[in-house]
Structure formats: C-alpha cells, structure tokens
Amino acid sequence: MGTIVDSITRAGFSPTSVFLNVHYLLACSKKSSVDPKLHLAFPWILWHIWKNRNLFCFEQRSNNAEAILSKALEEASVWLQLNAYVPVDPPAMELEVVDSHSWKKPPSTDVKCNVGSAWSASNSTSGAASILRDSGGEAVLHSRRSFVGVRSQLEADLIAHVWTSEALSDLKINRVILETSSSQLPQSLRGTLEFTHLMEEA
C-alpha cells in the first residue's frame, strides 16, 4: 500500500480515492518541513473537507479547493490565536533617532511610552520605570521595578525596554511609540536591526 500511495501522491492527490487523499494529507501533517501554523490547522482542513463532502452528497453543491482551504485556515487562525497557540504576528519595528529635549504627543492612532533606567555599578543593580500616555498627553498607566545582576548601563537600558515591551504585549497594546533617553540603546538596536535585515536577505 505504501508503494501505491507514494506513486500516486508524487503527482498530486488521487482523483478517485478519498482514502488515499486523506492518507496523504495526514502523512503531510507529520512532516517537520510543514509550517507550524499549517500543521496546527490540519484538523480544520479535514473538518472542512468533510463538510464539503456532506454538502455535495446532500445538496449537490460543492466549493472549490481554494475556498475550502482558505476558510479552514481562517477559522484555525482565529481559534489558535484566541487560545494562545499561535501568537499574532508582531507589527513591523521602525527605529528613528531624534535629538529632542521636549516631549511630543503621539499621533491620534498611537500611544507613547517613555522608558527610563538607572544603573549602579557598585552593587550591579538597576531600576526601570515607564509611563504610557495617549495622544492627548494624559497618562494611561505607569510602572517601575528593580533588577539585580546587571553589568552595565546598556544592559540596564535593554532590560528596561524588554520588560516594558513584554508588559505592553500582555496588555494587547500594539501601536506604541517607545521613547528613551538612553544614548547607547539606539545604536545597539540599529546594529541589531541591520544584522537581522541582512540575514533575511541572505
């Protein structure tokens, strides 16, 4: 049976056997090369194939394969995101270095989060604080905390921004302008983003 399945599926799905098609689909779902999101969506793909089969048998109507797959992936994506199986793709990150000594309001569609940190070399500790304001300049929330085992001011800046970003992500706040007074952090992030861009092009 394995030889028959292999000989058929090399050229695509079988035009005559539902069993071979389902067998091939399940075999594909176990391949490590399959995108994780598509792998998790297989139950919905099978469900919509079954629904389309019933639609054809009882109502003599049928959807095309592209429509079935699109609907299955859409429903799978919604369910998996609501149940925290698949994270929503993060928005693109843009880095802009502006030398400004006064606070400016964000656009009406965004909020702005100012992040600050302080580092003590004598005891290797740091403190971080953030304040989130809306487009009217009103404070929405603020927070602060301390960290231990911090080895430099740059590390303190990075820890503060990671902590703030994780908090904003947990609160489902996406359109955020992060503003820092750190002189080292923008150069560090710029180098990281440039390296990531080069890796994506490679």
Features:
single chain; 202 residues; alpha+beta; Nucleotidyltransferase, domain 5; 2 domains; 4-stranded mixed β-sheet; 7 helices; elongated; disordered N terminus; disordered C terminus
Compact overview of the structure:
The chain is α+β, with helices and mostly antiparallel strands.
CA distance, first residue to last residue: 42 Å
Q: What string gives the helices and strands in order?
A: HHHHHEEEHEH
Biggest sheet statistics:
4 strands, mixed
- What oligomeric state is this? single chain
Number of strands: 4
Mean of residue pLDDT values? 76
Categorize the overall geometry: elongated
CATH architecture of the largest domain: 2-Layer Sandwich
What is the tally of helical segments?
7
* Low-pLDDT ranges: 1-9, 193-202
What is the number of domains?
A: 2
**Class of the largest domain, according to the CATH hierarchy?**
Alpha Beta
CATH topology category name of the largest domain: Nucleotidyltransferase, domain 5
Helix content: 40-55%
The value of Rg in angstroms is: 26 Å
Strand content: 15-25%
| Spatial sequence of strands, sheet with the most strands | 3-2-1-4
Q: Could you state the CATH homologous superfamily of the largest domain?
A: Ribonuclease H-like superfamily/Ribonuclease H
Structural classification: alpha+beta
Structure description:
The protein is 48% helix and 17% strand. It has helices spanning 2-9, 18-29, 36-40, 42-59, 65-82, 153-170, 185-201, and strands at residues 111-120, 125-133, 139-148, 176-180. With 202 residues, it is an alpha+beta fold. The chain has two domains: 2-82, no CATH class; 111-201, 2-Layer Sandwich (Nucleotidyltransferase, domain 5). Helix 4 (42-59) packs across helix 5. The protein has a four-stranded mixed β-sheet, with helices on one face.
